């Protein structure tokens, strides 16, 4: 099994056992635990946990230490998907090839599932017995900041629907909406093992190139890939009148831009104090992804 | 100025300066910062911060150390009010004598404001330079657990609307929905100053009596107080077909029950290792509150 598949299976099993450990609420028709499970265990690429595990592996082979961070970052990501899919937000009824959370459990429970998942992400890291208190504080501080930036990015995103925006605004919006959490996933792996300030700043720059590349690529795939492969509706940006890279600079220019950004990201990695092989491999695979 | 008014002014000023420190997002029509400010600075009793300051004052006179906890717990409370007021939830259009957040900014921004406030609460404590890392972890662990319990309590609350429930279920629901956060406010004050396990367990029991008393009293006030004084619609439980203590055990029995619970709470306090005067005074004032 390839290493990224191993990481995916590992975080799936951590998430499954973590959610399984939440006590049931008797006497309720709907249990919040089950509402959360529906979305968390629906699959997905687990891109953020894979980033955390991969970066952590550059510094140390003790993979268990990265479990709570990998799981927490995925809980934050899933909470944001549940809320983004709500009728008041992006109004998407399909996610990961199944009905969106609110389509199954109703809007109220979907809002609460997102709220609950955000709280649980902080629980997971603050309760991890393998990480010392000083490191935990750095991780929690970064996750809180990134989670806030994500909400702010989504707020900006909603306020620019149907508007003419330039590339600069689009970049800034994505830097918050998706970039902040990717940056968090990447730096988690380094903070866990007390990486140097120099490595952290290289990874910060790597994350910013990778995050933007990933987003532009998402916009391109939204135009070029079928619903079934994406696991959500195709062409959703255009249908919703959302500004996207292809709509501003065209499809070919968008492809060229994200490929350049991935190459910049690759080049940064060679300056790390550790062997960057596994992270470089992951970056190449991302550049060539088809969904 | 009475001590509780001083605490209220103190937390108001901390919240104001904290939200003021969040950078603006240029190019947006609506700024998430302003959406949050609208609800956070709308006033309110600041009951939870007052509890934190009061308990902290039993152990130490250094009040600055409690600022981040007092502010964070209020941010969690306000986030929950914004989400609870949404049409998909309790559908309330008035809160603190002004329009609810979603009535002014729309549902999407209101959901994001709640999401952002939860993240900021964790930022506030994890960034506080006055608290050491070990203590911060205890505070963050408790806040994450309490915030999750609150979401779960609201989930149970929504699933029992229009249903016949017994006192036992109602107690359990309130223990999560409002009790968990009150317990957190109270224990924050003690954890900040390394209180003994014995004191923490006395405060836990005090919090559980106080929390239930406060909730039953809320149900009673919902029936007996005017909209203007409450700052929200009167008789809202009955209109929404929500089970309440007066609807199950009657008004007089409800009053007797909450008074007894406050008295139990008072008695617990005498066993603390420190002078419980200020907390005892606060409890008496709560018992006699009219809104």
UniProtKB/TrEMBL annotation, chains A, B:
PROSITE patterns: POLYPRENYL_SYNTHASE_2 (PS00444)
Pfam families in UniProt: polyprenyl_synt (PF00348)
Coiled coil: 248-275
Entry-linked SUPFAM superfamilies: Terpenoid synthases
Family stated for the protein in its record: Belongs to the FPP/GGPP synthase family.
Superkingdom to which the source organism belongs: Bacteria
GO BP term (any one): terpenoid biosynthetic process
GO MF, one example: metal ion binding
Cofactor(s) in the UniProt record: Mg(2+)
CDD domains from the UniProt entry: Trans_IPPS_HT
Identification of the protein by name: Farnesyl-diphosphate synthase
Keywords: Coiled coil, Isoprene biosynthesis, Magnesium, Metal-binding, Transferase
Provenance organism: Candidatus Pseudothioglobus singularis PS1
Gene Ontology terms: cellular component: cytoplasm
């Amino acid at each position: 099994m390839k290493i990224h598949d191993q990481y995916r299976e590992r975080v799936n099993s951590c998430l499954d056992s973590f959610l399984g450990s939440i006590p049931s609420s008797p006497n309720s028709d709907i249990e919040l635990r089950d509402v959360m499970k529906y979305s968390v265990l629906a699959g997905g690429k687990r891109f953020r946990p894979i980033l955390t595990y991969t970066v952590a592996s550059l510094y140390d082979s003790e993979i268990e230490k990265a479990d709570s961070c990998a799981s927490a970052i995925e809980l934050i990501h899933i909470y944001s998907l549940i809320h983004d899919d709500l009728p008041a937000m992006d109004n998407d009824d399909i996610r990961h090839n199944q009905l969106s959370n609110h389509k199954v459990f109703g809007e109220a429970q979907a809002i609460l599932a997102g709220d609950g998942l955000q709280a649980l992400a902080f629980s997971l890291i603050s309760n991890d017995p393998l990480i010392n208190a000083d490191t935990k504080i750095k991780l929690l501080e970064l996750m809180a900041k990134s989670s806030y930036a994500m909400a702010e990015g989504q707020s900006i995103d909603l306020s620019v629907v149907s508007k003419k925006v330039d590339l600069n605004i689009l970049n800034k919006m994505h830097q918050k909406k998706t970039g902040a959490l990717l940056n968090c996933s990447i730096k988690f792996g380094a903070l866990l093992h007390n990486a140097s300030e120099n490595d952290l700043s290289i990874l910060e720059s790597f994350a910013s190139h990778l995050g933007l590349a990933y987003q532009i690529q998402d916009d391109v795939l939204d135009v070029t890939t079928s619903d079934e492969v994406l696991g959500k509706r195709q062409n959703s940006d255009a249908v919703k009148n959302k500004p996207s890279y292809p709509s501003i600079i065209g499809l070919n220019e968008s492809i060229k831009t994200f490929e350049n950004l991935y190459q910049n990201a690759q080049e940064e990695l060679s300056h790390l104090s550790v062997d960057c092989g596994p992270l470089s491999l992951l970056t190449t695979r991302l550049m060539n992804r088809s969904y």
